[in-house]
C-alpha cells in the first residue's frame, strides 16, 4: 500500500478524530487530509511531477506532517533533512538530490538561497507570512484550489530519500519505496500492538527514520500523534506525557540517560504510558533496568534497526530478564542471518556480520552504485537480495541477536580486536557513571589505545578509579589507557551518540 493511502483511509474511518497535536494546534484526520491535498495541488500547479524530489528542512510540527503527505499525494519523493544541518552538508544533499523544491523554516531561508544559488528551485518558507526574495509562504499554499491529483500511483514508487552520514561523514541517500515503508509499519505496529486508541509522542525528528515511523504508524492505525520540536526541555516533555495521556513513547538511549539524571521525577507523569521503545543505538542494560524499576507498568521494547530497512529486530518485554543483552528476534516478515567474511552462516554464539532480507529493505543509495553494490548483494543459494548491515552480531540457538559492534568501530589494540560496546557496558556499571563512550586513538606502540569518555555528574571519580574498575572486569588489552571526563557525549542531530564526532574532537585537540 502507498503511505498516502493511510491518510485517505483514516480520514474515511476517523474524520473528526484528532490526528495531530502540535503546540496549540490540533488537526483532525479530515483537516490533515484537506491540507495535504492542498499542498499537493500547490506543487502540481507549479510544475511538480511524480518522482520529483522535495527537500523538507523543517522543524517537527503539523506543517511538516502536511508537507510529507502532500508530497506523496503529488507523487513526489520526500527528502527530509534535519533543520540543524549546516550549509556544507545541505549543499551536498541539494547537489545529490537535485530537488524540485525546498521547504524550509524562515530562519533557514538565507542559507537555502545561498546554497541553492541561481538554480530554478521552488522555495517554500514555513513559519512566516511574508517571505523575502522568491520564497513562497507555506500557509498561503494551503489555500490552493483543488486540482486533479495523480491516481493509481504504484506502491513501488520511491517515498523517501533519507541522507545518512555513515562512518565517512559523506551523506548517502537511502532510497525507500512506499512498499518498503508499508512493510515496516505493518510489522512494527503488529508487535507493539498499536490501535486507534493509541496516543504516540513524536519527539524525535521527523527527518530521522525512527521519528518518521511514529507519524506513519499513528496514521496507519488511526491514532493520535503529539509532535514536539525536540527533547531540549525534558520536564516539559514529561508534563506533556501526563497532559495528553501518551501511551507510546519512542526514545533513544541518550534521552533515557537524561531521564535517569532528572531530579524529583514523578512516576505520576507516566501513568498513561503503555510502552516505551528504545532504538537508534544500543540501550545499556543498566538504563533498561532503571526504567523497568521506575515504571514497572510500562513495557520496554529494545529494538535494533538501520535507516536502510527501518527496523530489524525487537526484544519482547517478557524476554528482558532472560535475554538481558540481546536486541531480540527478527521483526515479523524479516529474515536475518549472521555470516562470516565468505557469506556463510556461522555457528550459534559466533560473531559475524548481520545480513537482512525482507520487503522493508531499501532499493539502494541514491545515485551511488558503488555503495549500493557493497550493501545489497544477491544470495547465491536463494536468489534473494540481502542487506549487509556492516554490524557485527552473534545469534543464539533460539534466534536471539546480540549486537557486538559496528565493523568500523572495532578497535585494534595490542594485536587484539576490542568491541567498544563491551568496554562501555562495564563502565556503565560503575557507581557514579551515567554514561560512557569508548573509541580508539592512534598509538605508536599499541596501534590504537583505548580511550574512555565518561559522564559522571557530581561523582568524585578519578582516571585511576575508572581504570581499576575496568581492570577488575576486563582483559588487560580491553582496559582504557586514556580517560576523559565530560559533561555530555557528542551526538548527531538525531540524538545518537557519535563515535566519529568523538574521534574528531580527540584529533582536533591533540
From TrEMBL:
Signal peptide: none annotated. The keyword Phosphoprotein does not apply. Residues 8-366 form the AMP-dependent synthetase/ligase domain. InterPro entries: AMP-bd_C (IPR025110), AMP-bd_C_sf (IPR045851), AMP-binding (IPR020459), AMP-binding_CS (IPR020845), AMP-dep_synth/lig_dom (IPR000873), ANL_N_sf (IPR042099), ATP-dep_AMP-bd_enzyme (IPR050237). GO terms for molecular function: acid-thiol ligase activity; metal ion binding. It comes from the Bacteria. Keywords: Ligase, Metal-binding. This is Acyl--CoA ligase. It comes from Rhizobium oryzihabitans.
